User: What shape does this take?
Amino acid sequence: MPSIIEMVALTRFDCMVGSSALMRQALTQAAHHCAHRQVGGRVLAEQPLMQNVLADLALESEAALALTLRMGRALDHPGTSRRPSSPAWSPRWASTGSASGRRR
Assistant: This one.
């Protein structure tokens, strides 16, 4: 039974990786299309509303990738719920336990 549960978890993770990759591919194709398509004498990628759409697609794609990578880390390190200790995740003073070590 434990091996089946592990297999299901890895299958779900595989679906996350595939979905993130498909989102990235869709964004790449949409950006390429918009960069080469003209509407009303202007390149579609230069239209403000299309820029907003492409930005939303990029944000969603990056969020899916971040979630997938975080899940991958959780699968690699089971039982740890804390964030990795790196400047990208937490400020320097966070390890002291109080805000008194914060630089001003």
Summary: The longest strand covers residues 38-39. The chain has a mean pLDDT of 83.
